[in-house]
Structures are given as structure tokens and as C-alpha cells.
Amino acid sequence: MAEEKKVAAEKKTATKKAPAKKAAPKKEAAPKAEAPKAEAKKEAPKAAKKPIALPNEHDYKVILEPVITEKSMALLQNENKVTVKVADWSNKDEIKLSFQRLYQVKVVDIKIVNVNAKEKSRGGRYKGFIGGFKKAIVTIAEGEAVDLFKE
Predict the structure, then answer these.
(1) What is the fold of 57-140?
(2) Does residue 53 sit in helix, strand or coil?
(3) 147: left (phi over 0), alpha (psi -120 to 50) or beta
(4) Domain-by-domain residue ranges, the chain?
(5) How many other C-beta atoms are found inside a 10 Å radius of the C-beta of residue 59?
(6) Element (H, E) at 105
(7) What is the pLDDT of residues 35-46, one digit of tens each?
(8) Cβ distance 81 to 75 under 8 Å?
(9) Is 52 helix (H, G, I), strand (E, B) or coil?
(10) CA distance linking residue 143 with residue 128, whole number of Å
């Protein structure tokens, strides 16, 4: 009887120890298996480029025309910035979305300037005004370009 109790006690301890040993390797193996999956998930979005939507009628009402001056052309060539005349009621978010849709480029930053109206003489006696407008200086991501002079 004493021998039977010892054998039964050994079986209980053996069954208790066996699952504990099996569970420990699973815990160690699980993080190693998850690490490559996490790296693969991080790499996939970088490779996939999200397409930009097509322009709509609203975009043509927000972006009116490019501003062609010596300074704006220098900005375009040297700093990848495009200067455009925009609607008076537009804001930065609307300008960014419209510009991205119209020119199919990624916009990094936008600066908005309100150009005041100026009084000019019209041949001496008469004076007139050059109307004011709102313009946006749009910074485009590196490696992308905009062709303002399409033929």
C-alpha cells in the first residue's frame, strides 16, 4: 500500500510538472513568431501608395490660376513651392485637398497671403485700383513636380 501511494504521488507530480514545462516554451516561442509579422505589417503600408481622388467642380472654384512672377518661378525651381491665386472664401484644408486632386501631388505645407488692392494712376488725372486677391504658396513633397505650362 505504501508503494502504491508513492507511485500515485509520483504520477500526480509528474502530471503537474509536465504541463508547466510545455507552457513555458510556448510563451518564449510566441513573441519570436509575432515579431516578423509585426515587421511585415510595418513594411507593407510604406510600399502601398494611396491613390489621390479625381478633381471635381469645387476644386476648380477653389484654385483659380497660378501666379506667374519672377519670385514665384524662383520658388518653384529652388524650393518646390507653387504660388496660386485662390478663392477669397477658401481655407487651408480646402486648398490642400483641391491642389492634391488637380495636380495629383502630395502637399506638405500651405501658406496663405491676402494681397491688398492698390491705387494706380491712369494717365495722370484719373486714378484707379488694382483689385486685391488671396494667394496660397503650396509646398510640394520632394521628388514630385507640377507642370504649370502644359501645351
Answers:
(1) Alpha-Beta Plaits (3.30.70)
(2) coil
(3) beta
(4) 1-48, 57-140
(5) 19
(6) none
(7) 455 555 555 455
(8) yes
(9) coil
(10) 44
